[in-house]
RNA sequence: GGAGAGAUGGCUGAGCGGUCGAAAGCGCCCGCCUCGAAAGCGGGUAGGCGCAUGACGCGCCUCUCGGGUUCGAAUCCCGAUCUCUCCGCCA
C-alpha cells in the first residue's frame, strides 16, 4: 500500500507504475473517492462538533429548555448518521482500490516481460558430462530418493515423498542454510503456516493471489506460500524502537502453493510442486531508501554465499517490471544451473518493498526523535527444498548414477560422501 | 468439545448514562537537588484522521471489534473475537 497523499500528488507516476507492471488500477476513480471522502469527513465532523457542544449544554439545562435542545439534537444526530454511513461506503471502496495500487519499480529495473530480465552476475561453469546425463527424476529413481507416483496416489498431482538420502539431503540443505544465517546474526524462527487473511493482505498476496493459496474455510485460515508472510506479520500493529532495527529474521516453514493455471507446465519431477520447505530471510529496517538497498544487497549476498558453498553454478538476474509483484520495488532472482533442464531454474527470489508491506501490516517504529514511521521490509530465500535438490543431484551425478554429496552438507549426513545406487 | 469468568492507556488497576481520552500507582522522559547516584520535589508521557501548516494550533474518532438503545455510552442491550479457570480429549 502506498501513502494516499503520495498518490494524490503523483498520479501519473502511479499510472506509469501500473502500466510497467501490467496491472490495472483505476487511479482516477481512487482520486475522486479521496476527494469525496475528505468532503464527507468535514461535514460529519462539523456536525459532531456541534453535537458535542450541545451535549455539554444539555447536561446543564432543565425543563422546557432541555426538552427543546434535545429535540434539535435528535435531527442533527439523524443527519450525522446518514452522512457517516455514506462516508463508510466511500472509505470501503477507497480502501479496496488502495490495496491494488502498485509500488513504482526502482529506476534501475528493466522494463518489460521476462525476456527483459538482466543477468548481472554468473558464478561457476556448467559441467561437461562425458557420460549420458540423467535428470533428477532418473537419479532419484535409481537411488531411491524420491517417490513421485506414491505422492500422486496419496495426495494428488505435484505431490511426492522424499526418502532415504533424499529426505536427509532435504533436511541437510535446510539446516545448512539456517546455520549459515544464524551465524550471521539472524534470529531463527519457526512460524505458523496457517494464517489469517490479514497476514495475506498485509504482505500483499491478497487481494489478487487468492487462487494461489490453499484455504481452510471452516476456520477462515490460509496456508502460507512462504514464511515471509508469517515473519512480516510477526510485528504487525506494533511500534518498534529505532535502535532495535534492523531486525534480521530467518524463518523455516513448509510452503504451500496451488499453482493454479500452470497445468502442463514443469510437470516432470519436483520442480513445480504444491508443498515444499523453505528457509527464508526477512529484514525489517528503518524507512530509508539507502538502508533498504544495503539490506537487500546483504540478504542477496547471503543467498549467493549459500549457493556458492553448495558449489552450484548459478546466475543472478534483475527481474523486469512485468514479472514483479505489485508491491515489489526491485527483485533479484538467483537461477541455479540444472543440467536436466539444460538451463537455469529459479531457486531464490529477493525482494525490496520499502514501506509497501509495512503500511498494510501497520508495522511501525519510533525514531530517536520520537517520530513514528512505517518500517521497510525485505525478504529473500535462503534455500528452498526440494527444488534445490534438483540442482544438487544433477550437478553432482557420476557416470554410475551415484551422486557426490556437496562437502558442506556432509556433516549433516553423518559424513556421507557419495549416495550410491541401491544395487 | 462442555461449564464458568473476564477484556480499560507501556504495565497494574478505578470508573454513578452526561463534568471520562479516562482516577491512582508503576514504568519511562525532562528539570531541581547531589561530587555522582538513590530518595525526595516539580513537570511531561497513546494512536489515527481532517483542517491549517512559517510556528503555536483547532476539530473529529478510538476504553477488544461490530451492531443497537439514547439528545448523549467505557458505562445499558445483541453478536463476534480473544484470554483465563475447571472438565473431557490429545502429539
**What is the assigned CATH homologous superfamily of the largest domain?**
Bira Bifunctional Protein, Domain 2
**Strand share of the residues?**
15-25%
Specify the CATH architecture of the largest domain: 2-Layer Sandwich
| Average of per-residue pLDDT values | 93
Shape: elongated
- Quickly count the domains: 2
**What is the H/E order?**
HHHHEHEHEHEEHEEHEEEHEEEHEEEHEE
| Order of strands across the main sheet | 1-11-12-13-16-10-9-4
The CATH class name of the largest domain reads Alpha Beta
Please bin the fraction of helical residues.
Answer: 40-55%
Number of H/I helices: 12
CATH topology of the largest domain: BirA Bifunctional Protein, domain 2
Give the biggest beta sheet: 8 strands, mixed
Given helix and strand content, the structural type is: alpha+beta
- Rg is 27 Å
Care to describe what's here?
The chain has 423 residues and is an alpha+beta fold. The protein folds into 2 domains: 95 residues, Helix Hairpins (Orthogonal Bundle), CATH 1.10.287.40; 306 residues, BirA Bifunctional Protein, domain 2 (2-Layer Sandwich), CATH 3.30.930. An 8-stranded mixed sheet has the order 1-11-12-13-16-10-9-4. Strands 5-7-6 form a 3-stranded antiparallel sheet. It has a 3-stranded mixed sheet with strand order 8-14-15, with no helix packed on it. It starts with a helix and ends with a strand. The chain has 12 helices and 18 strands. 40% of the residues lie in helices and 21% in strands. Helix 3 packs antiparallel against helix 4 and helix 5 packs across helix 12. It is elongated. The protein binds one RNA strand of 91 nucleotides through helix 3 and helix 4.
